[in-house]
Write a structure and sequence with these properties.
The chain is of the alpha/beta class. Helix content is about 35%, strand content about 20%. It has eight helices and nine strands.
């Protein structure tokens, strides 16, 4: 990306056509690596993202019926945009996002949250996606989650330490990711709610389960808590 100005200068100097370069420049400038966060409802996805952003922008009282995929990426000015399936756009407020008052965007729309987050500024080409819960049972959510498999860099799977192991819906989803050879990062959330010894036991159990589901494909497990 940093070499684009030099490349353009060289092309002009040697009188080479710029059409292909301009297309590459536009693709590079607007390129986003999508990393969806998935897990069961109340696993802690939205809480984790709020901590990362440094403020409560996402609802932690998520309703399966109103939950929509929400893409988060850096921008110098905050903007919340609702995307309809047909490509129509609508500007939304923070209150609408927190209350999930998405109206006719449900069930097939999605939300784009542009935010001047200092954390996201470190990775301007990264787009984190807060996905509906895997266990909602809604066909619109299944379609939304599946749509990201073909355009994602990796998946972050959130598992609450209180669950002890993976939900059946999470197991099924990991099996599907294995077929697509998709990299996986597993985050064990809410670790402050259990003694250290219990956290280690849960981590061991989850590690063994994932090894079987991913057929020994590489993955990583990290821990988070409200304090850290």
């Amino acid at each position: 990306y940093d070499s684009l100005p030099l490349l353009e200068t060289l092309l002009i100097r040697y009188q080479q056509p710029l059409e292909t370069f301009q297309a590459v420049r536009d693709d590079t400038t607007h390129f986003k690596m999508r990393v969806p966060l998935v897990g069961a409802f109340s696993a802690g996805k939205s809480t984790l993202l709020n901590k990362l952003l440094g403020e409560d922008l996402l609802s932690v009282e998520v309703s399966p019926e109103t939950s929509l995929a929400t893409e988060l990426h850096y921008a110098s000015t905050e903007q919340i945009i609702g995307h309809y399936k047909n490509g129509q756009l609508i500007n939304l407020s923070r209150q609408t996002l927190l209350e999930q008052s998405f109206g006719t965007l449900i069930p097939d729309g999605w939300i784009e949250l542009k935010t001047p987050s200092k954390a996201l500024l470190l990775f301007p080409h990264l787009c984190l996606v807060d996905m509906p819960g895997l266990d909602s049972g809604l066909s619109s959510h299944v379609r939304a989650i599946d749509n990201y498999i073909g355009c994602s860099l990796a998946y972050i799977v959130i598992v609450s330490v209180e669950d002890g192991d993976l939900h059946e819906t999470t197991r099924q989803f990991l099996t599907e990711l294995a077929l697509h050879q998709m990299p996986v990062l597993v985050v064990i959330s809410k670790c402050e709610k259990r003694p250290r010894s219990d956290v280690e036991q849960v981590k061991t159990a989850i590690n063994q389960t994932i090894q079987k589901l991913l057929a020994n494909r590489p993955f990583q497990i990290v821990e988070t808590s409200a304090r850290k």
